[in-house]
Design goal:
heterodimer; A: 427 residues; mainly beta; Neuraminidase; five-stranded mixed β-sheet; 4 helices; 9% helix; B: 147 residues; mainly alpha; Cytochrome Bc1 Complex, Chain D, domain 2; 46% helix; iron (chain B)
Amino acid sequence: MKRNLTRYLLLPAALVGSLSLYALTTPPTLVADANNAGLKLPTGFGALVVAETGARPRHLTITPQGNIYVKLNRVNKAGQGILMLQPTSGGKAEVKTGFGDYGGTGMYYKDGYLYASSDQEVFRYKLNDKGEVTNPGQPEKIITGLINRRQHESKSITLDNAGNVYVNIGAYSNSCQQRDRQKGSLGQPNCPVLDSAGGIWQFKANQLNQTYGNGTRYTTGLRNVVGLDWNQQDNQLFVMQHGRDQLHDIFPDMYTSQQSAQLPAECMYAVKKGDNAGWPYLYYDPTQNKKMLAPEYGGDGKKEADSKFIDPAAAYPAHMAPNGLLFYTGNMFPERYKNGAFIAFHGSWNRAPEPQAGYFVVFQPFKNGKPDGKWEVFADNFAGTPEKVASGRADHRPCGLAQAPDGSLYVTDDSKGTIYRIFYNKK
Amino acid sequence: MQKLSLLCLLGFLSLPLAAQKKPAPKPKAPAASADLSASVAQGKKIYTQYCLSCHQADGGGVQNMNPPLIKTSYVLGDKTRLTKVLLNGLQDVDIDGEPYNNVMPSHDFLTDQQIADVLTFVRNSFGNKAPAIKAAEVKAVRATNKK
């Protein structure tokens, strides 16, 4: 009897205890916008507009305190290339401050530092214990002198867990032709672009003024990578390549405009130091699942490429422009999303005169650090209507992805400047 | 695909004042009008074959990559400058304050008549209205063209 009584007394105490713990760890309530801000989502998910930036936000990152840092493609009217937003209510946020007098794409938080890239350089800013930048005017310039010839200019960045930063240096060329994008022009022998671009370079996160001589060409043969992320499960870099354009325009005798709209695949690669993904010598054909010799280098649409080049980890429809990659490590979404990849497809232009495609966020299931099963559209209707997808005149174009401390997913739109937040609200 | 959904573009195009203040076109002699429509019809074929994949069916281009051809100073302005864009290609140039990062290759393999037709088509499509360009004018530009 006495033992029973104790049990009855302990039970409510334990309940109260766990409830208060629950209250402490429960994030502020997220309130979906009417019609989920226009997005189409799987059952149980909701979306809201965090803020309208009135600029062109590229990548973004969220500190453990919930501060949102957004890299702008170009500086705003106040001359600021980075915006800092803080939460208000219902999951929304407002711009608190801005700094950084340079446009760019890269934005990444790691271990108390904010990393940001212009189209030539990478900077880092120390954050205080509130997740605020203490020296907005004096960042550490860690990488400088990276090549920028406008085409494929984004220096997207990510970091590993060993103090290294990985930088995309996109090829300043479509397919390394002697005359870029010129009809019939053949490829330059031993493509010289690859010396300083067309790959991922590795640098130290904590050293100043590094340039090519201080870094390592980690992976070559990647035409242009805007979305990249470090996979924590198998401790490896994954990148999304923008595949080459204009097979029909350049080689109309070999490729119809329909084939040109569907070739080549947009590829995900899992890369290791020293890998070569094969640009400009090959493209990946998603219907044959083969690496094909590029027509600039003797290909004819049938000859396969040298097998020494690495295979993609996964392939997606052509020209959809993957601009954001994020491995989901949060606990908010259902279990099947854990450690899988979200990919923001900015949407195509190079499918014309065929209908355009993309303008959505895709989920790629993963198992043990490898893509497992077919990709699926996760968040759709950024464009507004199917007609706007087909014409390419999308209302919004997804670009950057970031995971909040509560496990919700942020998405930027670099066309109209909207920042979205997607969350799971099914109990 | 031919639908002209221009509205979303107008938001970020800065329209040159000159273009907005052009007087209404005067009635032309029937022969000139027939010449114009023949040139526009031929030019449309050239556009579809060589220009559309970048500049798009509606002439709106691609933000940050390929310039729009709708009421820009390049399209409506000086004929010689416009002709040279086709002959020499174009890169590293901001157009009406907007950067476009893709390279435009040279189209000097087109004949004088083809260049005249496609430019006349562009200058009289997508809401544009500007005088035709003649093959003789292209020939003159080509003869003195310095890259």
